[in-house]
Design brief:
The protein is mainly α. About 65% of the residues lie in helices and about 5% in strands. It folds into 2 domains: about 200 residues, Arp2/3 complex 21 kDa subunit ARPC3 (Orthogonal Bundle), CATH 1.10.1760; about 200 residues, Hypothetical protein af1432 (Orthogonal Bundle).
């Protein structure tokens, strides 16, 4: 690490240690047994997160801290928060165990500083609001106080994480915060009621026993959610296997589905589609050529012009793909995009010859991404065209083969790209399908006259 990074990390660590000392010196109103109990509960919550995407986890530790803030105040809450970053052990997705003693010291101190500073400062805000406006726990304005407490915790926690990542990796703070923080907002919102419920239970004379009893159903719920995520993992493996089968049929299309999924995601994000819809689109992009499994290799790899009968077989590959996927529980969005991604905006495409009014926007997004990658990739019957040539074709076919709005979006994206070099889509299928959202595409039919005759269909 650079000297500047070491200095900044050391400074935040010293600040957090001073805060912790202040809390130890001032905390009151809780017995040693209560302190130990809450440290165990918080450490257990930290040790049992749920991974729902790469490097993204759900933890209910914040619920414990809210219950503590409401019942014992800032000082004890900060002590427990800081301690939970030391006494924890996590089993990662890879089956390895992570804990304080096998992590680099600077990472442990970053976690310690983050929890301590964010909990301490949020607690001070909570105390100020409660004292300044004379608010009690049962006051209706308590909802606003808890909201501001959680908002402060979220901002401090996520900003500190972004700062630490900047210190360790040099990543840009704002970009890192936007990409890696906003996803956890729903988690923060869902945890607040759990924290308040823990507080209510704790006020009972048998509160500690009730909380321990509650841990059983919570752990069961966690286990059930873990099983759900494992089933979703199998879903991604099915996609990965099917994609590998598709690409094994034709060496010229290796990486094609990933590149199509890349541009599908770019287009869909620019058009502000919902995350779930983007995810479905990316799955469709990865599987849009699955029907080619049912087409003879002699046709797929033929270097010359296709006969009419061969061309009719090619036109059936979207339907073949749907029949292959018929028994798989993919969403209607995915299947519709795969079936119709070769339709034209003015009609006359295949397999149904539908026009733009009867074809979904998803299918048009998939179709143009597929067409662009086909145009700029080598094929047995021609060499790849340049990006400039491809953009010229997209403009020419705008409103004819391609949906005009979708075409405008892709052209804008391509013009913003710095390089003409094709993107390396070696990303893991799970990351590609899940990373921020997801879906698919295919390749288009053109009649192109550019000094030499190209095969009519670039499928």
């Amino acid at each position: 690490m650079k000297k500047t990074s070491i200095f900044l990390l050391s400074l935040t660590s010293i600040i957090s240690l001073f805060m912790l000392v202040d809390c130890i010196y001032n905390y009151a109103g809780a017995t040693v047994y209560q302190l130990i109990f809450w440290i165990i509960i918080a450490s257990l919550c930290e040790s049992l997160p749920v991974y729902f995407a790469k490097n993204r986890v759900v933890s209910v530790t914040l619920a414990v801290l809210l219950a503590l803030q409401l019942s014992h105040g800032t000082y004890l809450t900060t002590i427990v928060a800081a301690t939970s970053t030391v006494f924890y052990i996590i089993k990662t997705e890879d089956g390895e165990f992570k804990h304080t003693f096998n992590l680099p010291f600077y990472k442990t101190m970053a976690n310690f500083s983050n929890f301590t500073i964010s909990t301490y400062l949020s607690g001070l805000l909570y105390d100020f609001l409660m004292d300044r406006f004379n608010i009690t726990i049962n006051n209706p304005y308590m909802v606003i106080v808890v909201f501001l407490y959680f908002a402060a915790t979220f901002l401090l926690n996520t900003i500190l994480v972004s700062v630490f990542l900047h210190i360790m990796t040099g990543s840009k703070i704002i970009k890192t915060w936007l990409q890696n923080s906003l996803w956890c907002l729903p988690n923060y919102a869902a945890i607040a009621p759990i924290g308040y419920f823990l507080y209510v239970l704790y006020q009972n004379p048998m509160g500690i026993l009730y909380i321990l009893m509650l841990m059983g159903p919570l752990l069961l719920a966690r286990y059930s959610f873990k099983l759900y995520l494992e089933s979703k993992e199998q879903y991604y493996k099915i996609i990965q296997t099917l994609t590998a089968v598709i690409e094994a049929k034709d060496e010229y299309t290796e990486g094609h589905s990933r590149r199509v999924a890349y541009y599908v995601e770019k287009i869909a994000e620019r058009m502000r589609l919902s995350p779930n819809r983007i995810e479905s689109l990316k799955v469709a992009a990865l599987l849009h050529d699955i029907g080619k499994i049912g087409i003879e290799d002699s046709i797929l790899q033929k270097p010359g012009k296709l006969t009419n009968s061969e061309w009719e077989k090619i036109r059936q590959h979207p339907r073949i793909g749907i029949r292959i996927l018929d028994e798989v529980a993919f969403s209607p969005v995915i299947k519709d995009a795969i079936l119709h991604h070769h339709e034209k905006y003015t009609g006359g495409g295949y397999p149904d010859g539908l026009d733009g009014k009867r074809v979904s926007l998803d299918a048009f997004i998939l179709g143009i991404a597929d067409a662009y990658d086909a145009i700029t990739s080598d094929r047995p019957y021609r060499n790849a065209l340049s990006k400039e040539q491809a953009v010229s074709i997209l403009r020419e076919e705008r409103g004819r083969q391609f949906h005009p709005q979708v075409a405008d979006v892709l052209i804008a994206i391509l013009e913003e790209e710095k390089s003409d070099v094709k993107q390396d889509m070696g990303t893991d299928i799970k990351d590609l399908v899940q990373n921020k959202y997801l879906q698919s595409a295919e390749e288009a039919a053109f009649t192109m006259e550019s000094g030499e005759n190209y095969k009519k269909t670039d499928w």
